[in-house]
Design brief:
Chain lengths: ~130, ~250
Amino acid sequence: MIARAGRPSLHAVALAGIAMLLLAAAAALPLDAPPLSLFFCPFRAATGLPCPGCGCAHAFHFAVRGQLAVAFCCSPLGTLLAVASAAHVLWTALRIAGLPYAPAFQLTRRARWAAAATLAASWLFVALRNGP
Amino acid sequence: MVPEPAPAALQARLPEGSGTPWERRAELGFWRGWAQTVQLALLEPGKLFESVRLDKGAAQLGFAVFTISVFWAFGQLLEALLLQGQRERLRAILGRVAQNPDLAPALQRLIRAQLEESSPGWVVGLALLTPVIALVFLYLNAAVTHAVAALLGQAKRGFAATFAACAYACAPLVLLAVPACGSIVGVLWVIVLTSIGLKVTHRISTGAAAAAVLAPYFVLCCVMFLAMGSLMMALRSVARGAQGLP
């Protein structure tokens, strides 16, 4: 839902700044060189199975390059986060420029269950695709 | 995107606390306001979180970034000075272990990263970057905590309430200035204070607040436990290999 709103709050602007930082880092840093190549998932190293966040760095890397299908294959959750980050940055910039609208979510029970199911489905997808 | 509050929730989000000492630092003074806030957070957290004003996000951000960055930077420099001998010995041992071809590539990368992070250049660089790191850490922590609380249906008063709880819960990070054990005690205290803060600012039950705060840490702890286990097993197999044992 879209509702009328004033200027973005400090938190909205700060989160947009951090989202921009993450997207810029994903655009600038190569996956096969430090510091990103130094990261590894301890859960995967110990069990051979991916954790819920596995593949997010790859998903961000491909998403900022417009390769959304490849990003989705790496991690649906990561792709969703990358797209949401970009949307938040863009919308906050528009609101700072004077757009008087903002999204207004009502987190109903159904929406919460849908979010939990999306998380679980993303994890299952990555586990089946990249598991041992 | 950060959603705007629905009209029905607006009433619940209006500030009603009298303000923490830090939020009233204009009348109390900077240092007195900061010291009283830390004292309340450590000794009477319920009282502190009850006085929080949700419209003072900038003040809360300032308190957390100031507390984390000053004491973290001080702790890093102190640790680098006091534990220099031990650090050099550890670097030498890790350097030898990292060259072992039997070691898993992931473990070799981890050790190399540890070696780089403990070099003097990294220590000074990290100390200078602490305000930025503190800000990013604070917002990511608040975002994850709020997302879990929202999933559990416990985010009753919006992101500002979660942020206030997370910001003032950073008060025990003054212990980052204590070398060696300070960071462990500080982080554990932060987790407890975040639970108390979430309970008071969102007006939810203790169990719900604990569940919302502990869920991410539980996953993280499981991961860390498994990581430590795999590290110990890998080091043991390297040691056995060095002794010629099967």
